[in-house]
Structure prediction request, 540 residues.
Amino acid sequence: MSPEERRVVFASSLGTMFEWYDFFVYGALAAIFSRQFFAGVNDTAAFIFALLVFAAGFAVRPFGALVFGRLGDLVGRKYTFLVTILIMGLSTVFVGVLPTYETAGILAPIGLVALRMLQGLAIGGEYGGAATYVAEHAPAGKRGAYTSWIQMTATAGLFLSLLVILGCRAVIAPDAFDDWGWRVPFLMSALLLAISVWIRLKLDESPIFKRMQKEGKGSKSPLRDSFARWSNLKIVLLALFGLSMGEAVVWYTGQFYALIFLTQVLKVEPQTANILVAGGLVIGTPFFVIFGWLSDHIGRKPIIMAGCLLAALTYFPIFKGITHYANPALELAQMSAPVTVVADPKGCSFQFNPVGTAAFTSSCDVAKSALVKRGVPYDNEAAPAGAPTEIHVGGVVIPSFDAKGENAKAEAAAFEEALTSALAQARYPAKADPQRINEAMVILLIGILVIFGALTYGPIAAMLVELFPARIRYSSLSLPYHIGNGWFGGFMPPVAFAVIAATGNMYDGLWYPVIIAAVTFVVGMLFLPETKDRSIHHEG
Prediction:
């Protein structure tokens, strides 16, 4: 790698890593945001809503891909992702000074959603620019290795966000961190923004783009040429369903959902969970570069498809293993005294109402809400129509109650006391015991999940660049990538957690990534071409 090539890879990767840090620091603090910005709803709905705000940034990423992809194909790669990093950095700093719900009421979550959407627009333009820019500087036969450094930046940004949060938690008291200390990681983005802008101002434009500009061969309507012509649109669709969709759910399951599973399902203390996930990232992160390099030799397709297949086949046993090593008491209690909610299905609601316009007061809703709040998995059993709801904990039966009844207050106290006693007798833990966590095995299992993500993610930038002609490359690759990652991947955590809350089964949320990864494997194996030996200099 020449000095110029090293500068291009380093500058692009560092700026992109900082941008991912900005984007992910919110997700790592989702539990705090659920309390600070979504007060007034039950705990389950508040957390799901916090995850949906996280996902809102992903929802607008395809629109950012269209706006900045078009700009990148018209005016250049360098200046476009200079704009995106300014938007991202400033939005992140403003999150750090937002008033909370207690101070500003409904304006607080509205402001948070607006800033998350600006972040999503920025990241929608960033990735395509960075991947295209680095690939167009890379020599033939080394595009996988060069662009894999860009691929590693998403995990590195998550890792950096966890390290900063861990550092802040170490020096700020827990109550103070929940009150105001959470703002510090966002305010630190001002420094990262300054470094990123300074570095990127020193870069030159992509040589392929400069040649197209000089020869007048660039596209005057990159969006029309990308998506209104079937010859290119069919490749866009194949890139979505046979490539980025599966890659997205595998990446987010292995990194973000693993953290949510530890904290919200297994009730591992957040500081410990961050350390465990950070340890898994240390194991898995080098593999992004390894698999990018390997794809230059054996091809992109077999590596990416292997990641999708392995994820689909092993997610359930791996997450059961995480339960076994992170909260063995919960696993043992489930086996020795399973919990069942016996209720008339007509009296049970899907308890997701983020705006707080509905109250879940039926005896079934009361029972399920109490179990979800405690992190206790349960099975569902249909009762005869009109029958009262009961919670069975092993051989103990606890009758539920209607929260609108005349004696609801007294019944609530008796119900809480009976349920707490039954769960304690059955040895259901209120939280994971730090002394019983097998940290080495949890880190290893999370590391394996990250390696699956590296299989799918490490070679994908090179493959996307190689699928499309230079004149519309920025636009064409950005949209399928950000629909896959923004919609299929970004909505994975809130959808999975909502499914768990609805069914009571702590593993049911995994069906979402398993099915999508399997579909991508089938589509990719049948229709996706190998691209490693293609030239990327053609204008199309």
Q: What stands out?
A: The beta strands are 339-343, 379-382, 390-393, 396-399. The chain has two domains: 3-327+433-527, 331-425.
